[in-house]
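Figure S7 source data.
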Amino acid sequence: MSLLPIIEIPDPVLRAQSAPVERVDDELRRLIADMFDTMYAAPGIGLAAVQLAIPRRLFIIDLQDPEEEGGEPVKKPLVFINPEILTSSDETNVYNEGCLSIPDQYAEVERPASVRARWLDADGKQQEGEVDGLLATCFQHETDHLNGILFIDHISRLRRDMVLKKLTKLRKENKNLVA
Ligand code: GNR
Ligand code: NI
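C-alpha coordinates for the predicted nickel (II) ion complex:
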Protein backbone atom coordinates (compact mmCIF):
# COMPACT_ATOMS: atom_id res chain seq x y z
CA MET A 1 0.00 0.00 0.00
CA SER A 2 1.23 3.48 -0.72
CA LEU A 3 -0.14 6.92 -0.24
CA LEU A 4 0.57 9.46 -2.94
CA PRO A 5 0.64 13.21 -2.33
CA ILE A 6 -2.52 15.04 -3.44
CA ILE A 7 -1.85 18.07 -5.63
CA GLU A 8 -3.59 21.29 -4.57
CA ILE A 9 -4.46 24.55 -6.32
CA PRO A 10 -2.90 26.58 -7.85
CA ASP A 11 -0.72 23.77 -9.28
CA PRO A 12 -1.12 24.04 -13.09
CA VAL A 13 -1.30 20.24 -13.53
CA LEU A 14 -4.88 20.50 -12.22
CA ARG A 15 -5.66 22.55 -15.35
CA ALA A 16 -4.19 19.96 -17.73
CA GLN A 17 -6.27 17.88 -20.16
CA SER A 18 -5.75 14.29 -19.10
CA ALA A 19 -4.78 11.86 -21.89
CA PRO A 20 -6.72 8.64 -22.59
CA VAL A 21 -5.54 5.47 -20.85
CA GLU A 22 -4.07 3.19 -23.52
CA ARG A 23 -3.80 -0.11 -21.66
CA VAL A 24 -5.66 -1.53 -18.69
CA ASP A 25 -2.85 -3.69 -17.32
CA ASP A 26 -1.29 -4.68 -13.99
CA GLU A 27 0.69 -1.44 -13.81
CA LEU A 28 -2.54 0.56 -14.10
CA ARG A 29 -4.22 -1.68 -11.52
CA ARG A 30 -1.31 -0.98 -9.13
CA LEU A 31 -1.90 2.75 -9.62
CA ILE A 32 -5.63 2.22 -8.97
CA ALA A 33 -4.84 0.38 -5.69
CA ASP A 34 -2.62 3.30 -4.59
CA MET A 35 -5.38 5.73 -5.59
CA PHE A 36 -7.86 3.91 -3.30
CA ASP A 37 -5.36 3.93 -0.42
CA THR A 38 -4.83 7.65 -0.94
CA MET A 39 -8.54 8.45 -1.26
CA TYR A 40 -9.58 6.46 1.85
CA ALA A 41 -6.76 8.04 3.88
CA ALA A 42 -7.65 11.60 2.83
CA PRO A 43 -10.60 10.86 3.31
CA GLY A 44 -12.56 11.54 0.14
CA ILE A 45 -15.36 9.97 -1.91
CA GLY A 46 -13.68 10.42 -5.29
CA LEU A 47 -10.22 10.90 -6.75
CA ALA A 48 -8.96 11.56 -10.26
CA ALA A 49 -5.45 10.47 -11.31
CA VAL A 50 -4.56 14.06 -12.23
CA GLN A 51 -4.92 14.99 -8.53
CA LEU A 52 -1.82 12.81 -8.03
CA ALA A 53 -0.04 14.61 -10.91
CA ILE A 54 -0.84 11.74 -13.29
CA PRO A 55 -2.88 13.35 -16.09
CA ARG A 56 -4.56 10.19 -17.41
CA ARG A 57 -8.29 9.71 -17.94
CA LEU A 58 -9.28 7.67 -14.93
CA PHE A 59 -10.93 8.23 -11.60
CA ILE A 60 -12.27 6.25 -8.68
CA ILE A 61 -15.33 6.78 -6.50
CA ASP A 62 -16.49 5.22 -3.25
CA LEU A 63 -19.51 6.89 -1.69
CA GLN A 64 -18.99 4.63 1.37
CA ASP A 65 -22.48 4.29 2.80
CA PRO A 66 -21.90 4.81 6.52
CA GLU A 67 -23.83 1.63 7.36
CA GLU A 68 -25.18 1.10 10.89
CA GLU A 69 -23.59 2.85 13.88
CA GLY A 70 -20.26 1.65 15.15
CA GLY A 71 -19.68 -0.69 12.22
CA GLU A 72 -17.11 -0.08 9.48
CA PRO A 73 -18.44 1.88 6.52
CA VAL A 74 -19.38 -0.46 3.67
CA LYS A 75 -16.88 0.02 0.85
CA LYS A 76 -18.18 0.14 -2.71
CA PRO A 77 -15.06 0.90 -4.78
CA LEU A 78 -15.85 2.00 -8.34
CA VAL A 79 -13.29 2.50 -11.14
CA PHE A 80 -13.93 4.58 -14.25
CA ILE A 81 -11.38 4.54 -17.09
CA ASN A 82 -11.73 6.73 -20.22
CA PRO A 83 -15.22 7.81 -19.11
CA GLU A 84 -17.57 9.58 -21.50
CA ILE A 85 -20.81 11.31 -20.60
CA LEU A 86 -23.32 10.41 -23.32
CA THR A 87 -26.36 12.37 -22.13
CA SER A 88 -27.25 14.58 -19.17
CA SER A 89 -30.68 15.13 -17.64
CA ASP A 90 -32.41 18.53 -17.86
CA GLU A 91 -33.32 18.12 -14.23
CA THR A 92 -30.59 19.44 -11.94
CA ASN A 93 -29.40 18.89 -8.39
CA VAL A 94 -27.47 21.10 -6.01
CA TYR A 95 -24.79 19.58 -3.76
CA ASN A 96 -22.40 21.20 -1.34
CA GLU A 97 -19.19 20.10 -3.06
CA GLY A 98 -15.66 19.86 -1.77
CA CYS A 99 -12.41 18.86 -3.45
CA LEU A 100 -9.24 17.31 -2.03
CA SER A 101 -7.29 19.73 -4.26
CA ILE A 102 -9.06 22.72 -2.63
CA PRO A 103 -8.83 21.57 1.00
CA ASP A 104 -11.60 22.35 3.49
CA GLN A 105 -13.55 24.59 1.12
CA TYR A 106 -17.14 23.90 0.10
CA ALA A 107 -19.69 25.49 -2.20
CA GLU A 108 -23.08 24.61 -3.62
CA VAL A 109 -22.81 23.50 -7.25
CA GLU A 110 -25.72 22.87 -9.60
CA ARG A 111 -25.31 20.02 -12.08
CA PRO A 112 -27.52 17.66 -14.12
CA ALA A 113 -29.25 15.28 -11.69
CA SER A 114 -28.40 12.18 -13.74
CA VAL A 115 -26.06 11.27 -16.57
CA ARG A 116 -25.77 8.33 -18.95
CA ALA A 117 -22.12 7.33 -19.32
CA ARG A 118 -19.73 4.82 -20.87
CA TRP A 119 -16.36 3.77 -19.43
CA LEU A 120 -13.91 0.90 -19.02
CA ASP A 121 -13.78 -0.98 -15.72
CA ALA A 122 -10.62 -2.24 -13.96
CA ASP A 123 -10.67 -5.34 -16.23
CA GLY A 124 -10.73 -3.15 -19.34
CA LYS A 125 -14.32 -4.18 -20.05
CA GLN A 126 -16.65 -1.54 -21.52
CA GLN A 127 -19.52 -0.55 -19.27
CA GLU A 128 -22.48 1.72 -19.84
CA GLY A 129 -25.07 2.95 -17.42
CA GLU A 130 -27.03 5.74 -15.88
CA VAL A 131 -25.96 7.30 -12.59
CA ASP A 132 -27.95 9.62 -10.36
CA GLY A 133 -27.91 11.14 -6.88
CA LEU A 134 -24.56 11.83 -5.23
CA LEU A 135 -22.90 9.37 -7.64
CA ALA A 136 -23.95 11.55 -10.59
CA THR A 137 -22.57 14.66 -8.90
CA CYS A 138 -19.30 12.93 -8.08
CA PHE A 139 -19.03 11.40 -11.57
CA GLN A 140 -19.33 14.88 -13.10
CA HIS A 141 -16.93 16.43 -10.57
CA GLU A 142 -14.32 13.77 -11.46
CA THR A 143 -14.94 14.00 -15.22
CA ASP A 144 -14.35 17.75 -14.89
CA HIS A 145 -10.93 17.01 -13.35
CA LEU A 146 -9.97 15.07 -16.50
CA ASN A 147 -10.67 18.24 -18.47
CA GLY A 148 -8.85 20.63 -16.11
CA ILE A 149 -12.08 21.93 -14.57
CA LEU A 150 -12.61 22.45 -10.82
CA PHE A 151 -15.86 22.89 -8.89
CA ILE A 152 -14.99 26.55 -8.24
CA ASP A 153 -15.33 27.13 -11.99
CA HIS A 154 -19.08 26.44 -11.63
CA ILE A 155 -19.79 29.09 -8.96
CA SER A 156 -20.04 32.88 -9.08
CA ARG A 157 -16.86 34.96 -9.13
CA LEU A 158 -17.78 36.41 -5.74
CA ARG A 159 -18.11 32.96 -4.14
CA ARG A 160 -14.96 31.73 -5.92
CA ASP A 161 -12.95 34.66 -4.60
CA MET A 162 -14.31 33.97 -1.09
CA VAL A 163 -13.21 30.32 -1.30
CA LEU A 164 -9.73 31.25 -2.56
CA LYS A 165 -9.32 33.93 0.12
CA LYS A 166 -10.35 31.52 2.89
CA LEU A 167 -7.90 28.93 1.57
CA THR A 168 -5.05 31.46 1.58
CA LYS A 169 -5.92 32.48 5.15
CA LEU A 170 -6.09 28.85 6.29
CA ARG A 171 -2.71 28.05 4.73
CA LYS A 172 -1.13 31.10 6.40
CA GLU A 173 -2.52 30.02 9.79
CA ASN A 174 -1.22 26.47 9.29
CA LYS A 175 2.21 27.82 8.34
CA ASN A 176 2.34 30.01 11.48
CA LEU A 177 1.39 26.93 13.52
CA VAL A 178 4.46 24.97 12.47
CA ALA A 179 6.81 27.99 12.42
O1 GNR B 1 -14.30 13.96 -1.27
C1 GNR B 1 -14.96 14.59 -2.09
N1 GNR B 1 -16.24 14.94 -1.77
C2 GNR B 1 -17.13 15.46 -2.68
C3 GNR B 1 -18.32 16.01 -2.20
C4 GNR B 1 -19.27 16.51 -3.07
C5 GNR B 1 -19.04 16.46 -4.42
C6 GNR B 1 -17.87 15.95 -4.92
C7 GNR B 1 -16.93 15.44 -4.06
S1 GNR B 1 -15.45 14.75 -4.69
C8 GNR B 1 -14.36 15.02 -3.37
C9 GNR B 1 -13.02 14.37 -3.63
C10 GNR B 1 -12.36 15.02 -4.83
O2 GNR B 1 -11.77 16.06 -4.79
N2 GNR B 1 -12.51 14.40 -5.98
O3 GNR B 1 -11.98 14.95 -7.10
NI1 NI C 1 -12.02 17.10 -6.76
